[in-house]
Amino acid sequence: MKTLGKIALVLVLLFLYVPIFVLIVFSFNETKSRAVFSGFTFDWYIKLFNNRIIIRSLINTLIISAAASIISTVLGTFAAVGISRMRKLPKKLILGATNIPIVNPEIVTGVSLMLLFVFFTARMHFEFGFATLLIAHITFDVPYVVLNVMPKLAQMDPNIYDAALDLGCSPIKAFRKVVMPQILPGVLSGFIMSFTYSLDDFVVSYFTSGPTTQTLPITIYSMTRRKVSPEINALSTILFLVVVIALLVRSGMFRVMEKRRNRQ
Question: Would you list the DSSP string of 27-85?
């Protein structure tokens, strides 16, 4: 059974990562062929960074992802703290409502947000663009932050916060000095998850973006409808490396935090 399990694990890993490996290899291919590797070159990366449309979309995506992740992390953290102090029944109801955007199909979320924004544009001078994209990304990012912070709050002794208040701390100082260090790993996980989901999102962004603000997945989709260029391979390789680096940084930070806890 152990041998079969190892074989199954290897097959799953191959299924997941061989396509990415092929994509990375062919991002350095001299020709546009997706079947024959004819030679090594960096030309597609040079052309990628000279493509104004892709660079503009990349900048838009990074700004929206960073802004949405920061706002969602703040909102989600305070929401999780508030939910953790609720009674049992209201807590279950609120958590169930919070999880709806996670299990809800993205197309339903995208269409509903689009209709909401259309409602406001018909009554106010409100256009689809950066603001609608940011609001949409915050909408589906907040539940992931709550999902990551709640377990850390459940592990924390609730009397620590009250003890800090009894010892003279203000509520803000008690939260910053006592609660925040306890839930920081969950907050960081929520931030990183929010950032990666915003970076990757296509469906919701497609329905809530405007003509002047396009995210990178939408631009890639527009390019693939005409013809798949090796520039997309190069761009996908860079995005993959960014995600891998983010995961390595996250694991490194968690190790440092664990070592500090063990020392204390």
Answer: TTBSSS-SS----B-SHHHHHHHH-HHHHHHHHHHHHHHHHHHHHHHHHHHHHHHHHHT
- 262: confidence class by pLDDT, cuts 50, 70, 90: low
The Cα–Cα gap between 26 and 180 comes to: 45
Measure the CA–CA gap between 253 and 58, rounded to whole angstroms. 26
pTM for the model stands at 0.82
Domains of the chain: 1-41 (no CATH), 51-263 (1.10.3720.10)
Alpha carbon distance, N-terminus to C-terminus of the chain: 42
Q: Is 138:72 a contact under the CB 8 Å cutoff? A: yes
Return the CA Rg of the chain.
22
For the stretch 4-31, pLDDT in tens is 888 888 888 888 888 888 888 888 888 7
Helix, coil or strand: residue 157: coil
- Taken as a whole, the chain contains a residue count of 264
Given this model, what pLDDT does residue 97 score? 83
